[in-house]
Amino acid sequence: MMMSTENCSQVRAPSIGMRALHVDDLPQMLALQASVYPPALLESAQVLASKIGAVPAGWTSLAATDGNTLCAYALGYPWRSELQPCWNRPLALQHDCDVLYLHDVAVSPAYAGRGLANELVSQLMRQGQQLGLSRAILIAVEGAQGYWSRLGFVAIPTGSTDPAFGGDAVLMQRELAPPGSMLLDTA
Ligand SMILES: CC(C)(COP(=O)(O)OP(=O)(O)OC[C@H]1O[C@@H](n2cnc3c(N)ncnc32)[C@H](O)[C@@H]1OP(=O)(O)O)[C@@H](O)C(=O)NCCC(=O)NCCS
Questions:
Q1: C-alpha 24 – ligand 1 centre gap (Å)
Q2: DSSP string, 52-71
């Protein structure tokens, strides 16, 4: 079954807000990252900062917050599909991008299961649509392929990934519909 964006916005508690992710969020991002990933998959503050900042004007990654608490974040940026995404290397601003790369979505265990990841991803995908990107790609790690399948992502059979993402990493993709059309509500 695929999940619906509209359903998820209904389950988000009123106290939880969505906003652009800032470098000021880095201390909480690092703590959140460490709470959901094994040490081998942790990226440095410098790399995370580059992935927040090396993006076209107007583009933002996203944070879900509950007061001053960072509940979840979604790091994604325009990317060139012929390039292989790298783990823990600083991002340089890319030109002539054709895809949205969803690099990292992480939800604090205390806020899991409320649709936050779905909502953050939906907003990133809307930005991608508005920029005219044709599809979204991601690398599912830590057995998250099933989660992404429910959002309509499918494995790219020929896709190879940087070994640093782990032996079970799976390159996945889904189309981005033209602006104005339905996006994740594909149930
Ligand atoms: C995967 C993750 C982002 C989902 O965040 P979330 O806000 O809890 O997700 P949602 O509320 O939108 O969806 C929750 C549903 O996804 C399911 N789900 C969560 N993780 C899953 C996984 N790894 N595989 C399959 N399903 C998963 C939950 O069981 C739940 O199912 P339900 O609706 O039937 O109860 C979050 O669990 C997380 O941060 N995990 C650790 C980091 C990670 O693996 N990120 C993705 C790396 S590619």
A1: 25
A2: HHSS-TT---EEEEETTEEE
Question: Distance, CA 181 to ligand 1 centroid (Å)?
Answer: 25
Q: What is the pLDDT of residues 107-157, one digit of tens each?
A: 999 999 999 999 999 999 999 999 999 999 999 999 999 999 999 999 998
User: For the whole prediction, is pTM greater than 0.85?
Assistant: yes
12 in contact with ligand 1, CB cutoff 6 A: no
> Six-digit token pair at 30?
């690092």
Phi/psi of residue 110, each to 5°? -70, -15
* 2 has a pLDDT exceeding 90: no
Is 187 buried (19+), middle (13-18) or exposed (0-12) by CB count in 10 A? exposed
Atom of ligand 1 nearest to the CA of 144: 23
The per-residue pLDDT for range 46-64, each reduced to its tens digit, is 999 999 999 999 999 999 9
Q: Looking at the CA of residue 139, tell me the nearest atom of ligand 1.
A: 48
- For 21, other C-beta atoms within 10 Å of its C-beta total 23
Q: Which domains does the chain carry?
A: 5-175 (3.40.630.30)
Q: Which of 143, 159, 61, 49 is nearest to 105 (CA)?
A: 61
